[in-house]
Amino acid sequence: MFQRFKLFLIAPVILLLGGLLLFLRLATPGPLAADAVDALYADPAPAPTGPLKVLHLGHSLVGHDMPDMLTQLAQSGHSYHSQLGWGTFLKDHWDEDAARNGFETSNTHPQFRDGHAALASGDYDAVVLTEAVEIRDSIKYMESPRMLHNLTDKARTNRPDVRVYFYETWHPLDDPEGWLTRIDRDLEKYWETEILRRALNFEKDPQPIYIIPGGQVMARLTRAIEERGGVGPLKTRNDLFSDNIHFNDYGAYLMALTHYAVLYQRSPVGLPHILTRADGTAADDPGPEAARLMQEIVWQVVTGYPKTGVPQN
Question: What does each C-alpha distance from 288 to 19, 233, 282 come to in angstroms?
Fold first, then answer.
């Protein structure tokens, strides 16, 4: 009897939540038509003419070391702020009343700036956003397209010429569907169609949101090193990670190169590979051979994917 009573109480709540999710889904526009998307990215973005001031809103797949390494790779004058958390959704960055896991510990560093204050300031040349993974759950429960639109709109309202980027990441190495399989499939299926193209369709006159293809670079490098039986300290995909999803110093360097290539529209080939972490300690050096391969692969991926905004090969 008591179990029936509990079910009687819980059922309406479940129905209400389900109805709310359905309403939000229906209220989100469909993906922008493929031909309109192709036209939007047909021409590359204007190349920056000087150092950039960048805002990163993300989570632990951004981290502290990667943006700091980017600063070391970029020309003098590059600077950044960030707001990070643990598994932080775009919705967490937008909703200031959300329970933000890890905010207190992730943002105790000199480059922290409150996300809303930063977007309202108009101080930034570029804003880099990313969504939490599992990407399907973010889309289903956390209004990813609307949140990407909202954050982009706030950035552009306060700085019309700001460049907005959407950083594609990856799933755990032990994903049961296959790590490389997910990366190969998810870019077009989820990051582009379900999030980016729907976010663009909120606008009557959409402007590009460029993609930083982190997952694609990870996959391309993984295939290269595993097919060759290893290059320098990199033997398998595991050598890019400190656990089954978070990058180590080598992975942070790879993502810093990827951000550099997209943001500055310059080849990273020849950039230094002896860098420091955000705390000033020496980062693990991939060595010249592996660093060169990383740099070449980054440029191949970035110049073979028009949604980066970089002129294509």
Answer: 56, 11, 16
Dump pLDDT digits (tens) for 251-268.
999 999 999 999 999 999
CA 257 – CA 73 distance, rounded (Å): 8
- The token pair at 2 is 């008591």
Helix (H) or strand (E) holding 157: helix 144-158
C-alpha–C-alpha distance, residues 164 and 17, integer Å: 32
3-15 residues labelled b (16+ CB within 10 A) or e (exposed):
eeeeeeeeeeeee
Locus of tokens 């606008």: 203
For residue 7 the two structure tokens come to 């079910």
Q: Do 266 and 293 touch, CB atoms closer than 8 A? A: no
Which SS3 state, helix, strand or coil, does residue 145 take? helix
Judge whether 252 and 283 are in contact, CB under 8 Å: yes
Q: What is the pLDDT of residue 83?
A: 97
